[in-house]
């Protein structure tokens, strides 16, 4: 055998088992043992992976095991389960420069909120970005102060049949006076209360009818702007309210925004009041696009402060979308926004590294105010606009991709022409 090139030796230990082990079907004798056990593999095998989000919604006010709001992609094409709720708080801030994909994200969140049983969705839109989706799912779409001014008119003082409703109506009237430069005195409030008592007993419930009960020229002149004889009468001085709300109501406010605060604020205050009356414990989402308008006005700052503290108990998530972190930082309620909105979604911003001066903060400084570190800011700088988004909450952080196809984009990323 040596001459043929085979190395061989005579077996004298384990010879019988070695020979039997060469025979077919003998699997027990002379089994070769591996040098390393698989137990050693567990000592260095990676036990961590990319955070994929929670499978279910965390809120105990939702039906148990309610699914995540949205499935997206993250690094390595791993699915990322996006939830707005942290425990039972769903308030969310969305920041993104113009053209970064903010409206598409907002529309997708609106569409996915319909998956929850008995959910209510109210959205304030700018630029008709939610119109295709609203029409597709059978929602109510209102173009407030749009070209067709005859289709929608409000009667804010038509439902004051309870003390609570009357108190709101009096506060609303006082807001109108403030917008017209008249700061109500205690005597003015008493006059308004007396006139509202008369109005409550009257069969005619228009704003003009209420003004006729006021015997104060200063107040009647200030309120006249909102009556049928003023510029906003066609919208706020109706005998009957034509606004009807359903499980999905969308309000286009671009034209209304162009009218200025004096005309914008009264309408939005009334719409918000109508929405608040719909809150009965069902899962509710209130989406506010272009929230910089509200953050920049003293009336709305206090309203948002109230919502973020109170609406959680009514199972309502407030989602604020705006272009710049400076809108929130300079609003005067930054502490409330940071404490009450645990979830933040930040869109790509190539200027996020720009630092400001001592007297004028830059984007980098505002990101720092919101608790982001340099690594996170770098992610936002390098992210792809209209494609990638950065999620941040106490549960974790993740850069994700919506991965929308053409069909999905036709609903959430398009406008009807």
UniProtKB/TrEMBL annotation:
It comes from the Bacteria. Pfam families: DUF87, P-loop_TraG. Residues 88-340 form the AAA+ ATPase domain. Transmembrane segments: none annotated. PANTHER family: TYPE IV SECRETION SYSTEM PROTEIN CAGE (PTHR30121:SF12), UNCHARACTERIZED PROTEIN YJGR-RELATED (PTHR30121). This is Conjugative transfer protein TrbE.
């Amino acid at each position: 055998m040596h001459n043929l090139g085979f190395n061989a030796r005579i077996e004298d230990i384990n010879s019988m088992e070695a020979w039997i082990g060469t025979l077919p079907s003998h699997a027990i004798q002379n089994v070769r043992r591996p040098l390393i056990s698989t137990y050693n593999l567990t000592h260095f095998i990676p036990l961590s992976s990319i955070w994929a989000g929670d499978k279910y919604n965390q809120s105990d006010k939702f039906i148990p095991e309610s699914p995540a709001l949205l499935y997206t992609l993250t690094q390595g094409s791993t699915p990322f389960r996006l939830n707005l709720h942290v425990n039972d708080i769903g308030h969310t801030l969305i920041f993104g420069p113009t053209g970064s994909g903010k409206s598409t994200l907002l529309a997708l969140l609106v569409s996915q909120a319909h998956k929850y049983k008995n959910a209510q969705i109210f959205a304030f839109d700018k630029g008709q970005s939610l119109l295709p989706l609203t029409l597709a799912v059978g929602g109510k779409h209102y173009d407030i102060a749009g070209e067709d001014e005859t289709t929608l008119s409000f009667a804010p003082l038509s439902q004051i049949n309870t003390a609570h409703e009357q108190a709101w109506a009096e506060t609303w009237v006082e807001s109108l006076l403030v917008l017209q430069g008249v700061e109500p005195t205690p005597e003015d409030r008493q006059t308004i209360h007396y006139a509202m008592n008369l109005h409550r007993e009257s069969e005619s419930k228009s704003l003009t009818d209420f003004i006729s009960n006021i015997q104060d020229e200063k107040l009647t002149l200030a309120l006249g702007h909102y009556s049928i004889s003023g510029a906003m009468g066609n919208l706020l001085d109706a005998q009957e309210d034509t606004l009807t709300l359903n499980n999905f109501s969308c309000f286009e406010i671009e034209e209304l925004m162009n009218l200025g605060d004096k005309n914008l604020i009264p309408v939005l205050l009334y719409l918000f009041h109508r929405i608040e009356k719909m809150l009965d414990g069902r899962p509710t989402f209130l989406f506010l696009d272009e929230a910089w308008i509200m953050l920049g006005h003293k009336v709305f700052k206090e309203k948002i402060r109230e919502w973020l503290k109170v609406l959680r108990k009514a199972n309502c998530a407030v989602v604020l979308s705006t272009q710049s972190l400076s809108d929130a930082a300079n609003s005067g309620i930054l502490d409330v926004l940071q404490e009450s909105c645990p979830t933040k979604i930040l869109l790509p911003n190539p200027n996020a590294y720009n630092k400001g001066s001592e007297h004028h903060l830059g984007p980098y400084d505002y990101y720092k105010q919101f608790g982001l570190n340099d690594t996170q800011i770098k992610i936002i700088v390098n992210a792809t606009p209209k494609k990638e988004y950065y999620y941040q909450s106490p549960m974790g952080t993740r850069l994700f991709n919506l991965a929308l196809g053409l069909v999905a984009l036709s609903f959430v990323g398009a406008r009807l022409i």
